[in-house]
Amino acid sequence: MTKDMSYDVIMERRTEIMKTAVGIDYEIFESGSIAFDYERMMKETGYSFQEIKEIQETTGVGNTPVYELRNITQLARKFAPKGKGARIFIKDEAGNPSGSFKARRAATACYHAKRLGYKGVIAATSGNYGAAVASQAAMLGLKCIVLQECYDSRGIGQPEIIEKARACEALGAEVIQLSVGPELFYTFLVLLEETGYFNASLYSPFGIAGVETLGYELSMEFREKEGRDPDVVVITNAGGGNLTGTARGLIRAGARDTKIVGASVSLHGLHMASDTQFNKKSFTTGHTGFGIPFATWPDRSDVPRSAARPLRYMDRYVTVNQGSVFYMTELLAQLEGLERGPAGNTALSAAFYLAQEMDEDQIIVVQETEYTGAGKHINPQLTFAKENGIEIIIGDPSKEIPGKNIILPKDPSYIKIEELDLNKTKKSYIKNAINHVKATNATKEDLDFLVEDTKSNIEFVKTTLDELGISH
Amino acid sequence: MEAKRGDWVRIHNTILEVGQRATNIPEDTQNVPLEMWVKGFLLDESANIGDKVTIETYIGRTVKGNLLEVNPYYRHDFGKSIPELLYIGLQGRQILAEEGDNND
User: Fold this and answer.
1) What is the largest CA-CA distance in chain B?
2) Interface contact flag, B58 A172, Cβ < 8 Å
3) Is this structure's pTM higher than 0.80?
4) Rounded distance between C-alpha atoms, residue A92 and residue A99, angstroms
5) Which of A129, A299, A448, B85 lies 20 to 30 Å (CA to CA) from residue A56?
6) Quick count: other Cβ atoms within 10 Å of Cβ B54?
7) What is the CATH classification number for the domain harbouring B41?
8) How many separate domains does chain B show?
């Protein structure tokens, strides 16, 4: 008998396929209402912090250097009011085996797959996570498949994604490239079922716990060098895992006063699933097209309950334009001697502005960099933008229209941020959480869960529920 | 014949035809098929570009598709000259060299 592999049938089997492919029964964490036991999920399916450190040390992950960006700090101070202009630092995560912080997530996921006896791992990613999984799989002797959304219907691919495919193949992985569309998830499910491999999801408890070491290292490094924790950590935000893991690591270290700022590239107006708009964007990650939907509903990911829950930890969420990130990437090379990939510099662009709001003796940290290379570099990315009809302008970045132009700031004073209204985001999240289980009533447990999951307070949650007509 | 058994090749496949695509996606995407590209060693004795072939991928999976390329290679590079970027380093260094610390 041949199994029915049609789109609808496979999608109906998704829960069953995922359970086999992640090895977690997510049902046991559900309350039956809005709440689910996040901390229990993180604890029971994960590893102790000590174990994770050991797993990562074995595969050469983590303990990356931190650099003080003295010239960029100095430059920010030129535009700051007297006494303002915090010291800007960067954690050079490009030093990980696969060239980005994603090695931390891949290390734990691959270790777990190996321990459970899976023969291989599959990751659905067009980003740095692919090379990270391929690299860890190579070290552990696991087979690896990376599934990418790469081309539009003309067969034209984003240079950044093509470079990542090359990196995965260089590390012995099979790379499957698809054209634009969320039905990538269907192909993913078919592959999981066919191979019986482990779903090295970015959003599993193992993956997120793997990033906790980053936040923990930051706290330890700053206590050692500066005698205190950083005042602000800025984190490039897409699916929310980088932010969640880093914040949890800082909390684990006891750095409870450190403020967490999420930063995304604004791709306002571009539809992520549109074939014709796919190659109109110049960032394939760290942008609002992932950042906002994953913040307002994290459980849209490839596992039933995402371990990446950015609203739980975020104090502010800001956006920057594409041009400012390209500009900062060039400045990082020219003034600090660090040539790194653009996507990792999203948080740096935000930090450049945020530092000007802070006192001179304060510390602001950008917690990642990523590798750069052919395709994944400002020159090929801007070349590609021009070839796709995007105009490159030197001027006022606040006038940038994603998909039409990229505006490089005409001088550093033009680098600004846009503040997102986090209360609005939190309200959207609460609405989605209710719709997810079709709730008409919220229990005491639900209220506590929603307060935690939105880093808000009971009054805020109650008011939101009243607005939505949900009794509590 | 353009390819023989054992050659490293790239194949192409259609996963979902127009009409089979998810309904909750933008219209422009619904109007085109969902396509796939993958590489592997040719299992057929010989084949020409466009032929329906079977390959074994690098990790040992068997996949069918239309032969697209023999000995595929990457063409991405460091792009063309972007003169618009040239002011950034010069301007940054110049501002740093100016006297005074704060903009007050």
Assistant:
1) 77
2) yes
3) yes
4) 9
5) A299
6) 14
7) 2.30.30
8) 1
Q: Which of A161, A374, A199, A412 is nearest to A279 (CA)?
A: A161
pLDDT score of A2: 63
> What is residue A7's predicted lDDT score, i.e. its pLDDT?
87
CA–CA separation, A218 and A101 (whole Å): 13
The pLDDT, as a whole number, for residue B101 is 62
Cα–Cα distance, A155 to A285 (Å, whole number): 20
Instruction: Count Cβ–Cβ pairs < 8 Å, chain A vs chain B.
Output: 176
Q: Which residues pair with B11 in a beta bridge?
A: B38, B67
A412 reaches B (C-beta below 8 A): yes
The reported pLDDT for the residue numbered A59 is 96
Spatial CA neighbour of A453 closest among A320, A345, A310:
A310
pLDDT single digits (tens) A143-166: 999 999 999 999 999 999 999 999
Contacts of residue A166 in chain B, CB cutoff 8 Å? 74, 76
List all residues of chain B from 1 to 40 with a beta carbon under 8 Å from chain A.
15-16, 20-22, 25-26, 28-29, 31-40
The two tokens of residue A184 are 């990538």
Of A271, A377, A392, the CB nearest to B26: A271
Q: What is the per-residue pLDDT for B103? A: 54
Establish if B83 touches chain A: CB-CB under 8 angstroms: no
Q: CB–CB of B59 and A174 under 8 A?
A: yes
Q: Which residues of chain A have pLDDT under 70?
A: 1-2
User: What distance lies between CA A206 and its chain's CA centroid?
Assistant: 15
Decide if B62 is inside a domain.
yes
Q: Name residues of chain B where pLDDT drops below 50.
A: 104
CATH-assigned architecture of domain A58-97+206-419? 3-Layer(aba) Sandwich (3.40)
Does the residue B82 lie in any domain? no
Would you list the domain boundaries of chain A? 7-54+100-204, 58-97+206-419, 431-467
Could you report the predicted ipTM of this complex, rounded to two decimals?
0.95
Give me the pLDDT at residue A465, please.
97
Q: Tokens for A146? A: 């990376």
pLDDT in tens, B26-49: 999 999 999 999 999 999 999 999
What per-residue confidence (pLDDT) applies to A5?
81
Instruction: Report yes or no on B48 lying in a domain.
Output: yes
Q: Give, as one character, the DSSP assignment of residue A208.
A: H
Distance from CA of B45 to the nearest CA of A (A): 23
Chain A residue whose CA is closest to B100: A78
Which residue's structure tokens are 């004795």?
B45
- Phi, psi dihedrals of residue A227, rounded to the nearest 5°: 75, 10
Instruction: Determine contact, residues B12/B68, Cβ cutoff 8 Å.
Output: yes
Residue of B28, B78, B84 lying closest to A275 (CB–CB): B28
Q: Is residue B85 part of a domain?
A: no
User: Which of A144, A174, A393, A410 to probe by mutation at the B interface, max B CB count within 10 Å?
Assistant: A174
Selection from A216, A231, A188 nearest residue A7 by Cα: A188
Cα–Cα distance for residue pair A51/A72, rounded to 1 Å: 37
Q: What is the CATH number of domain A7-54+100-204?
A: 3.40.50.1100
